[in-house]
Write a structure and sequence with these properties.
The chain has 207 residues and is α/β, with parallel strands linked by helices. The protein has helices at 11-26, 42-51, 75-84, and strands spanning 2-7, 30-36, 55-57, 67-70, 94-95, 100-101, 106-107, 112-113, 118-119, 124-125, 130-131, 136-137, 142-143, 148-149, 154-155, 160-161, 166-167, 172-173, 178-179, 184-185, 190-191, 200-201. It has two domains: 2-84, NAD(P)-binding Rossmann-like Domain (Rossmann fold, 3-Layer(aba) Sandwich); 93-196, Hexapeptide repeat proteins (UDP N-Acetylglucosamine Acyltransferase, domain 1). The strands form four sheets. It has a seven-stranded parallel β-sheet, with helices on one face. Strands 6-9-12-15-18-21 form a six-stranded parallel β-sheet, with no helix packed on it. A five-stranded parallel β-sheet has the order 7-10-13-16-19, with no helix packed on it. The chain is globular, with a radius of gyration of 17 Å. Residues 3-85 form the PglD N-terminal domain. Keywords: Repeat, Transferase.
Length: 207
């Protein structure tokens, strides 16, 4: 088993703990040393304790020889954390065993998928991509680095998603749409046309 540290004690960080435990139930893979967080709240401290997971301290507490999962929901915060980390850390893919994966799937480092994710054929995702519970990623979709697809979102086929995009919970992105870097799709939105960089769209149809 390999040592693993999770960065982030919030909701996504604790759901990543569930993913790690689910992986270990199938094949013992990870020895979870604990969680680091620069701003641990009392609520998250008690929630970690209830899970039996140690709090190791702020970001500088990551052991040099441990694998690391950046389990923070905000794409921009994930990118900032990566810039702050010193040394050549290993960022493994943590894929929940219930994830279904189509043929010809490729991904970068730091991928995290939660329970029930569905990935179609010929999907490509970049580094530090988060696919939240029950997200659906359609065929031939490309998602760049630091993308977050939130719970129950559906991304149709042949969608292009730029770096740092957040696709909100229960939203739908229709086939062939392009979403430019650092845009945000609001929860429950239906995206029917391309979205520009740094734009936030919401509603049905999304505007």
């Amino acid at each position: 088993m390999r040592d693993l540290v999770i960065i982030g004690a919030g909701g996504f960080g604790r759901e990543t703990i569930d993913t790690v435990r689910a992986i270990n139930e199938i094949v013992p893979t990870w020895r979870l040393l604990g969680v680091v967080d620069d701003a641990l709240s009392p609520n998250n401290e008690s929630r970690l304790a209830a899970l039996g997971v140690a709090y190791l301290g702020p970001l500088g507490s990551v052991p040099d020889d441990a694998a690391v999962a950046i389990a923070v929901g905000s794409p921009s915060t994930r990118a900032a954390i990566l810039q702050r980390l010193d040394g050549g850390f290993d960022f493994p893919a943590l894929v929940h065993p219930s994830t279904t994966i189509g043929s010809a799937f490729s991904h970068g480092v730091g991928l995290i998928t939660l329970a029930g994710v569905s990935i179609g054929t010929n999907v490509r995702v970049g580094d530090h991509v988060h696919l939240n519970a029950h997200a659906v990623i359609g065929h031939d979709t490309v998602a760049s680095d630091f993308v977050s697809i939130n719970p129950n979102a559906t991304v149709s086929g042949a969608v292009q998603i730029g770096e740092g995009v957040l696709v909100g919970a229960a939203s739908v992105v229709l086939q062939g749409v392009s979403i430019a870097p650092r845009a945000t799709v609001g929860a429950g939105a239906c995206v029917v046309k391309d979205v520009g960089s740094h734009r936030t769209v919401k509603g049905v149809p999304a505007r």
